Amino acid sequence: MSEIVELELAEKIKLLSPGTKLRKALDDIIHAQLGALIVFIDEEEFPRYSSILQSGFKLDCPFSPERLYELSKMDGAIVMDKNASKILAANVHIVPDPSIPTTETGTRHRTAERLAKQLGVMVVAISKRRNVVTLYYKDKKYVFGDINLVLTKVGQTINALERFRESFDKSLEVLDKLEIEGNVSLGYVCEILIRGIEIKSISSSIEISIVELGVEGRLSQLRLLEVLKDLDEILTLIIMDYSKKDITEDDAKQILETMLKIDHRPVPFAKLLGYDVVNSQQVSDTIVRPRGYRILRNEVHIPMNISQNVIKSFRSIDRLVKTNPSVLQKVEGIGDKRAKAILRRLREIKKRRQ
Asked: Are 256 and 235 a contacting pair, CB within 8 Å?
């Protein structure tokens, strides 16, 4: 349920991001040093809340930044439809349930937080004194930062992520050679998984900031997508390769999700892969043999169903590289040309770092 609320919150933040009409109105209100309380509700539900959203002036007019700005000069709250396309009322007196807990101190923000929790709607509070926009949605709170500071933070984080991804990709090249030689330690596998998980974790920490940037964050979004390109697939295939038991792709994805939530250390990762280890030294000393899903999918570029047939026949990539085309082509889905192409590519990888 919390993940659903997080996605909904991101959609609400997008409504208030730079480049939208609503953000223009909020910026105008801030520049004029006015405070405001704006409630977003389902238009059809509005009459039901008469005991909470009291009096005021009913307007029922299309939204425009200029109208919202002018109405913010009045006392009371402004009520809009949930899609921010219509202004329903202004100068509204809000009476939320006073027993609802709130961490805020100012009257406007205490009212906003309680109303968001009580009705499960989006409420925006603009501080007259601090010129800060705060969004409340259900039990979530999001404070919009200075756009230049957010841009700087996002840019610095993506710069670091790009370096991490470059290092991760170089580690994969080393893993290619070790796999074909049959000389992979469980410690090295866990190290690569940890690097990939950390890239995902750090990326998640700035995704909401990129949403907040709106049109100003388009370049950052493209750069982040490049950093994350194929990462989930690679990590999933590594888990399928090194899980002690044969597992499905769905099983591997579930393990990947669990890795995001646990300590990023070799022992917990090794245990998730099914190995009975107690310390890092034991992890490092354990030699493992990959099934070959990652190399067959990402380096040789053959479909998963055919990869499964190959792996079922050879069990590990180092055995596969030692075979000959006449044996390989007996596997279902592998003809003469494909057998030669697979072995040629595997031997190219083996020679790449010699």
From this structure: yes
Token pair 């230049």 is found at 148
Buried-exposed string 280-317: b where 16+ CB fall within 10 A, e elsewhere: eebbbebebbbbbbbbbbebbebeeebbbbbbebbebb
Q: Mean pLDDT over residues 196-218, rounded?
A: 94
Q: What is the distance between the terminal CA atoms of the chain, rounded to a whole angstrom? A: 51
The answer to whether 114 and 95 have CB atoms below 8 angstroms apart is no
Tokens of 195: 């690097």
Query: What does the mean pLDDT of the chain come to?
Result: 91
DSSP strand E in the chain: where?
Answer: 36-41, 53-54, 57-62, 77-81, 86-94, 122-126, 133-137, 140-143, 184-185, 287-288
Instruction: Show the DSSP H helices in 137-230 as ranges.
Output: 147-181, 186-213, 218-228
Q: What is the pLDDT at residue 145?
A: 87
With contact defined as beta carbons under 8 Å apart, do 10 and 2 qualify?
Answer: no
Residue 1: predicted pLDDT = 39
Tell me what percent of the residues of the chain surpass a pLDDT of 70: 97
Following CA atoms 278, 195, 13, 125 in sequence, which dihedral angle do they give, to the nearest 10 degrees?
60
Count of CA atoms in the C-beta half-sphere (13 A) of 103: 4
Neighbouring C-beta atoms of residue 354, cutoff 10 Å: 5
Least confident of 48-62, 124-138, 294-308: 294-308
Confirm or reject CATH 3.90.226.10 for domain 292-354, answering yes or no: no
Domain boundaries, the chain: 2-144, 145-290, 292-354
Q: How far apart are the C-alpha atoms of 170 and 348, rounded to whole Å?
A: 17
3.90.550.10, 1.20.1260.110, 3.30.420.40, 1.10.10.10: CATH of 145-290: 1.20.1260.110
Dihedral angle sign, alpha carbons of residues 48, 52, 58, 59: negative
